[in-house]
UniProtKB/TrEMBL annotation:
Record-given protein name: Polygalacturonase
Localization (cell): Secreted, Cell wall
Chief place of localization: secreted
Keywords: Cell wall, Cell wall biogenesis/degradation, Glycosidase, Hydrolase, Secreted
Origin species: Brassica napus (Rape)
Length: 474
């Protein structure tokens, strides 16, 4: 029987100590030379924020609310460990262990002991468990620990996906009210055969573009209509599509995760947030082929701290929003003390023409860029085809702060691109303490602004003369 500390705080601390340290558009623009010598290698990564300073604020639990993690001071009568091998799982990387996982989950979830218990579903080290598309359903009678110390994989590729099972999702957690996904193990989506489908719009090894078209591919982890979730330590890699999604979720605390897939892997967003609030993503590393973090409609109160994005991918994105004339609202987003390297974008807001709603209360603070093509970008003309007609409506972008963003950029694009709607301008943009220089040579590309209004609080490099005064002052 696995011996686990009865003190949840010590359990989490031990996992964190074991977890290794964080691993480390095209527009026509005027060019000129910048005389100061900037050494791209002189820019350090942002300082690491100690875990003790970056923990999510503690929630005072209702002693009768089993959705809350047990208090460190609470005297637990017992910890019930549900090792999946005791439910028939083999873990040889070949045998389908889905039924064993489902039985173990149902047993842990239905734990009917008194309140002073913890249910632990254990995926033990040294084994590889094959699971097909599965939904783990709550709410459970006690707080759940899903401890992954071994490896979890799906069937290998679309041809081996069981007939009749959903190809859009793999591991789904539905209506969970209190769960921690922890451990030192790996959740491996085995995405290569999905990425190689002819309908995937990405470039193959021969640098030729694959045929485009719709096709279904599963997200590795989906949390749907759930609350009080915590993720720490686990590595998630090679998802066929998005690695981790949160839809309709509340109170999500992510710390010390590693998400990785090749830069060429299509549509493999690291973490996607939709219709969710009170989400923290701290002290994690994401290297993938699409958005490092993407924030969709209906999301608010999102805090991203000490996140490393890249190499590869499309940076941290709000959007895309307003597709097919839809209404989208996003507010109170903070990204701070983070590092983006060798990425197509840095911090991005992207909206479709014709949409409505708003993006407001966004702060990007102390972001280090290393050879990023579009370090700062607002694109209200986002389009995935060559034939997108102009429309008058747009998602309103308001109250966005860019502060202390420094590093190097790929000068094929401007370091700052504010491409705002003709009819719905971007307003209340604040730009402060920017120092962005080319990663190669001394030729500087001037910022690009279109219908963008705001203020430049401090001296910045390059000069941002294209940002107009706020229209309310005219």
């Amino acid at each position: 029987m696995l011996k686990i500390s009865r003190d949840p705080f010590l359990r989490f601390t031990t996992l964190i100590l074991i977890t290794s340290s964080l691993f480390s558009y095209g527009t026509e623009a005027r060019l000129h030379y910048y005389n100061d010598i900037h050494n791209p290698n002189s820019y350090p990564e942002p300082p690491y924020s100690p875990f003790s300073q970056s923990q999510p604020p503690s929630i005072s639990p209702d002693p009768d609310d089993l959705s809350q993690p047990p208090s460190p001071c609470q005297d637990l009568d017992q910890e019930v460990v549900h090792d999946v091998r005791n439910y028939g799982a083999v873990g040889d990387g070949i045998t389908d262990d889905t039924d064993a996982f489902k039985t173990a989950w149902d047993s842990a979830c239905s734990n009917d002991e008194d309140n002073n218990t913890v249910s632990i579903l254990l995926v033990p080290f040294g084994f590889t468990f094959v699971i097909h598309s599965t939904i783990f359903t709550g709410p459970c009678r006690s707080y759940q620990y899903f401890q992954v110390d071994g490896t979890i994989v799906p069937r290998d590729g679309p041809e081996s996906w069981p007939s009749g099972f959903n190809k859009r999702q793999w591991l789904v957690f539905y209506r969970i009210k209190g769960m921690a996904l922890i451990g030192n193990g790996v959740i491996d989506g085995r995405g290569q055969k999905w990425w190689d489908l002819p309908c995937k719009p990405h470039r193959n090894v021969n640098k030729t573009t694959a045929l485009t078209g719709p096709c279904e591919s599963p997200a590795a982890l989906r949390f749907f209509m759930s609350s009080n979730l915590s993720m720490q330590g686990v590595t998630i890699k090679n998802s066929p599509q998005f690695h981790m999604t949160f839809d309709g979720c509340h109170e999500v605390h992510i710390n010390s995760l590693r998400i990785t897939s090749p830069p060429s892997s299509p549509n493999t967003d690291g973490i996607h947030i939709e219709n969710s609030n009170s989400v923290e993503i701290h002290n994690s590393v994401i290297s993938n082929g699409d958005d490092c973090v993407s924030i969709g409609s209906g999301s608010y109160n999102i805090d991203i701290l000490n996140l490393t994005c890249g190499p590869g991918g499309h940076g941290i994105s709000i959007g895309s929003l307003g597709n097919q004339n839809s209404r989208a609202c996003v507010s109170n987003i903070t990204v701070r003390d983070s590092f983006i390297k060798f990425s197509d974008n840095g911090v991005r807001i992207k909206t479709w023409q014709g949409g409505s709603g708003s993006v407001s209360g966004v702060t990007f603070d102390n972001i280090q860029m290393d050879n990023v093509r579009n370090p700062i970008i607002i694109d209200q003309y986002y389009c995935t085809s060559k034939n997108c007609p102009n429309k008058t409506n747009a998602v309103f972008v308001n109250d966005v702060v860019y502060q202390s963003i420094k590093g190097t950029y790929d000068r094929r694009s401007p370091p700052m691109h504010f491409g705002c709607s003709n009819n719905v301008p971007c307003v209340n943009l604040t730009v402060s303490d920017i120092d962005l220089v080319p990663s190669k040579g001394e030729m500087v590309v001037d910022p690009f602004c279109w219908n963008a209004y705001g203020v430049v609080d401090e001296f910045s490099v390059p000069s941002i003369s294209c940002l107009k005064s706020d229209p309310s002052t005219l």
